[in-house]
TrEMBL record:
Protein name: thioredoxin-dependent peroxiredoxin
Organism for this UniProt entry: Vreelandella maris
GO molecular function, one term: thioredoxin peroxidase activity
Protein family (similarity comment): Belongs to the peroxiredoxin family. BCP/PrxQ subfamily.
Reactions listed under catalytic activity: a hydroperoxide + [thioredoxin]-dithiol = an alcohol + [thioredoxin]-disulfide + H2O
Length: 158
């Protein structure tokens, strides 16, 4: 079962960078952007994370927390965050619990071979914990600006 717009997102806890645990219910009262990316330290994922990093002040002004998620281990996430100077937490979802909740594991083809991997996707959760918007099959250029505009609009409406 996947999350649906207008419906509450099931609570979850996940291991994150900075020796922390992120629990969705503890973020109530703030909007939350959760973006899923295939692999730490790859070109598209680095660009996308950098775009979120560079606009974090604007997301903060829109009362919105940013969380990045991939199946990479915590050490890879910590290295990625440090190397790219990301100013938000990255979640290590090796057991795919968060990925499964948001239904982002898809059959992909690379070099003619099929494998299961993360479909680049972003979700915007409102202050009450309901899914407000989703972007699936994301193309990186311009994406973060679109998410920021949606977060600002949602924040202004509440």
């Amino acid at each position: 079962m996947s999350v649906e717009i207008g419906q509450p997102v099931a609570d979850f806890s996940a291991t994150a960078t900075g020796d922390s645990t992120v629990t969705l219910s503890e973020l109530r009262g703030k909007q939350v952007v959760i973006y899923f990316y295939p692999k730490a330290s790859t070109p598209g994922c680095t660009t996308e994370g950098g775009d979120f990093r560079d606009r974090k002040t604007a997301f903060d002004a829109a009362n919105t927390v940013i969380l990045g998620v991939s199946r990479d281990g915590l050490r890879a996430q910590e290295n990625f965050k440090a190397k790219q100077d990301f100013n938000f937490d990255l979640i290590s979802d090796k057991d795919e619990n968060v990925c499964t909740l948001f239904d982002v594991i898809k059959l992909k083809k690379m070099y003619g071979k099929e494998h299961l991997g993360i479909e680049r996707s972003t979700f915007l959760i409102d202050k009450e914990g309901k899914l407000a918007n989703e972007w699936r099959g994301v193309k990186v250029p311009g994406h973060v600006d679109e998410v920021l505009a949606a977060a600002e609009q949602l924040n202004a409406a509440s």
